[in-house]
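thought: user wants a sequence for this fold. calling inverse folding tool.
action: design(structure=
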């Protein structure tokens, strides 16, 4: 390999490392700004694509409504299953 190609390749590899580090810092800053814009106190967790995802916090009343709805669905499912077993 000619000396010029080796030098060009090492320069490009160094530039790539620097740009990737810069991209990571920018993505972290974007996540911080997004969390401030939303104004919510939820935790921000990183995703694999480099975009931050906000985790939700449910209140006690919301959890109670969800649990009641799920119990209702399961009761209906069991009722249908019992009716099918009698046939």
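)
observation: tool returned 87 residues.
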């Amino acid at each position: 390999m000619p000396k010029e190609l080796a030098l060009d390749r090492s320069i490009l590899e160094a530039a790539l490392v620097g740009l990737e580090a810069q991209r990571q810092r920018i993505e972290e800053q974007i996540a911080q700004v997004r969390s401030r814009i939303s104004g919510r106190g939820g935790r921000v967790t990183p995703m694999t694509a480099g975009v931050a995802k906000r985790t939700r916090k449910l209140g006690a009343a919301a959890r109670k409504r969800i649990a009641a709805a799920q119990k209702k669905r399961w009761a209906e499912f069991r009722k249908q299953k019992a009716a099918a077993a009698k046939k």
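thought: summarizing for user.
answer: Here is the designed sequence. The chain has two domains: 1-56, 58-87.
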